[in-house]
Amino acid sequence: MDSYTPHQIRFFAEQLLLKRPQSSIDGLASTMSGVKVDLNPHQVDAALFALKSPLSNGALLADEVGLGKTIEAGLVLAQCWSERKRRILLIVPAALRTQWRTELDEKFYIKSRILESTNYNKAKKDGEYNPFDIKDEVVICSYNFASLKEIDVKSIAWDLVIIDEAHRLRNVYKSSNVTGTRLRRALSGKRKLLLTATPLQNNLMELFGLVSIIDEHVFGDARTYRDMYVSVNNEEMRNHALKQRLKQFCKRTLRKQVTEYVNYTNRIAVLQEYTPTADEETLYNYVSDYLRSDRLYALPQGQRTLITLVLRKLLASSSFAISDTLNSLIERLEGKLKGIEKELCLDDYDTYEELLEEQEDADGSASDDLLKDREGIKAELDELRKYFDLSRSITYNAKGQNLLSALKQGFEKTESLGGKRKAVIFTESRRTQEYLLNLLSDNGYSGEIVFLNGSNNDKISKKIYAEWKEQHKNDGAISGSRQADMKAAVVEEFRDRASVLIGTEAAAEGINLQFCSLIVNYDLPWNPQRIEQRIGRCHRYGQKNDVVVVNFLNRKNAADVRVYELLDLKFRLFSGLFGSSDEVLGSIEAGVDFEKRIASIYQNCKKQEQIQAEFDRLQEELSERINEKMSAARQSILENFDEEVAARLKGCQEDTLMGLDKFSRWLCNFFIMQGAERVEPLDQWRFAYTDDGVRITYNVQWKDAERKGDIFLRKDDPLLQKWLNHALSVPVPAVKLHFDHTNSPDHKISFLESHPNLKGIFSLDKLIYTGFENEEHLIYSVITEDDTEIDEDMVNRFMELPASIIGKCDPETEELVKKRSAGIAEQQAKIEEENKKYFLEECAKLDAYSEDLKEGLQRELKEIGKEITEKKRIFKSSTDRPLAEMLDMKAEVNKLEERRKKMRRELYEREDEIDAANERLQDEIRSKLSGTSRTEHIMMLSFEIV
């Protein structure tokens, strides 16, 4: 076995632990090497953009749909995490909370906690002063929850706040946006990362709103911004000026710009039409009419709109789905007659809790008069029992029978495209899920079906879960969270053995099903974002085949037909290379609000003409929102030329590969120097180590590690951390080293072959800069006997060679001292130059902000001047009016002129105040940049390389 010295071990330990500037590829390399994602250059480029300035208050990442903004944000988050900046808040739509938690856990190895009413209230009850004050876990919560807990959120010194689907805040400048206003107040002064594919949808004021969330000192007030950038004649000049102001905060990449790095497959839509039986149609009409009643005693009045929406979804799903819910309504009314208030059970609908989370305002509370109307309650009870009896009598569902032929056709289509015989079937009801399990099991699919829903308490899932836990008991795959582990077990069973996964919306969150390319929307959500999320489980990065999407449609239901047309033709969800465009998805604002709009049409329109008219109106509104003029403005303001992007991404790709390769080499070298052995046949990224008699194979390539069953080696590995800490504690006195290049066939270095018997002296020092952001730099000082220049890369290479200590170090020379001093001075100058760049950027931003404010003051003067001119014109043309009236008019003019004089006098004072405020902000920046540096000597050695 090759021998190595403590000096080499210390050298690579320093490389692995060095705090490099976070805005460099090398700074990100440690983070990137330890995550389970395929890093595309546009994602690294976006992460570096978000990290680029330590003084920045944040950034807006606005890549098109499907380019992985979650990965970009994850890299930024992971970088903060590695720097021990662990006060991190994630604000996301309620439906995406679980997905984010899974992504952070599985891809970035970062634990997180979803904070919502139940565990928040429990924490408060247990005596916690602020439940948001959580250590070593990312806090995830919904928009509404964060805004309602404004004071708690504000009181935490967050290191980073990530806001997903941030277009929800683009109208924050409007007083009507209560949620946005609360969040802006709560997050003021915190570093924020906003994610949205649709930063500009309807109006240029939206950019003002989003940027004001990031940083309040970019533009002046909303009125000045409107005058400067909205109400203008020369749009080209406006767009150029706005682009310059925004380029420091906003970054956008398009899908067409990254096709060299990301391979996209197609979506192919298949429509499966069906006609319900007479009994099914009767039941549908009965329940629909019931839901339109003026008074409903069975529904909690404060949630009537929401529950009506859910009941309509269950009604459209299957007779089995609505049947038990009708029974729950019956039990609630029976309780009322006995003076008992029973909870309405809606657990059949998996995402009901999320809908509640999204609901800002209740519909009002029930009056005492309603509760006292016993005759009304009895009449409603009789009605519901009639519907329940009918639902129980229905055993044949036309839609279900059509699934059998749809699945057969879907499999044939998928297999003809090269896909596997696997399908994921989505329904919105757990009871429909059970019905489909029985239906498919009785028709040739027995033993091939797995389930995913919010609980997975069925026998099949429990058996799969138990077997999975036994199989993975020793490999670290078990997280301890039943929900997460159950999902992992079911997905693994589906991937390796089963043919069909029947899932509720729980299956659309946080799982990757690239191995499946057939999706069946048995129940079609009205929320386009939900559908995109479903299809995105399979049609995503890593999918090798075209994805077939089968949609069920009740052709006899006019509203269902129009919803499908809207989703297919307007939103373009089911066909094409990319699915729905960001312009379209962004036009719907919040998906739940859009669902409520659709539900109101079902609720209020009974006749076909009414239904058609309302959908026509909705479609017209959407067309107005998808604004071509705004699309052109977005391209001009937020997008860069393809050639410019291509050149930047190419450079980023090369630098990323180089940085990852370098860090991986250091990792491998360090492990081998601790006694690990390369795995045969020789593989530079795989090696084995025997610990307490157990041989463990490590791999720094995560995909290869998963294929071969190796341990994916990350910097946080406990064994590696133990060795790194030990390496730093071992003294490294000045010695002479002999490096064996001749007898090291695995380390052939061309440079050393052309420079044989190289001798010299080497000093390694560390420059530690402490400021607003701390960073470290290694200073290499090498002097050779024959004056051969040795750069940093070559030092890294020869330190990999087997070596031995052969004596004492040669005395330090004056030339070495000079070289070291020059290296330190050069690095200090680079740090100062970077800080200067950051300072000038912030000063330019603040100066522009101050000029905006002054422009606003001048605008007020101009407006009062216009008013005076107009009133004087009216006065001069009013000679035929009575004297008293003219005197009043003149007095009004004089009063305005006095006001203008006062404003002119105060103008300079107010401008001075603006300048003083600007200077105070710049002083804050200067104080942040007034860092100190010190040098720590690590080792000195003389060497010979033979």
Question: What do you see in this structure?
Answer:
The structure is a single chain. The chain has 946 residues and is an alpha/beta fold. Among the domains are: 25-257, Rossmann fold (3-Layer(aba) Sandwich); 674-730, no CATH class; 734-946, no CATH class. It contains 35 helices and 22 strands. Helix 6 links the parallel strand 3 (112-114) and strand 4 (138-142). The chain is globular. The two termini are 19 Å apart. Mean pLDDT is 86; it is low at 360-369.
Q: Which secondary structure elements does this structure contain, and how are they paired or packed?
A:
Blueprint lengths: L5 H12 L7 H8 L8 H11 L6 E4 L7 H14 L5 E5 L4 H12 L3 E3 L2 H9 L12 E5 H6 L1 H5 L5 E4 L14 H9 L5 E4 L9 H10 L7 H9 L4 H12 L3 E2 L15 E8 L3 H14 L12 H14 L1 H19 L14 H7 L9 H5 L1 H20 L4 H19 L6 E4 L3 H16 L3 E4 L6 H13 L10 H15 L3 E4 L14 E4 L6 H8 L11 E8 L3 H13 L11 H5 L4 H14 L3 H18 L2 H11 L3 H32 L3 E2 L7 E6 L2 E6 L2 H7 L2 E2 L5 H12 L5 E5 L10 H5 L3 E13 L4 E10 L7 H7 L4 E6 L5 H63 L6 H47 L2 E14 L1
Helix pairs in contact: 1-29, 2-29, 3-4, 3-29, 4-5, 12-28, 13-14, 13-18, 14-15, 14-26, 15-18, 21-22, 24-27, 34-35
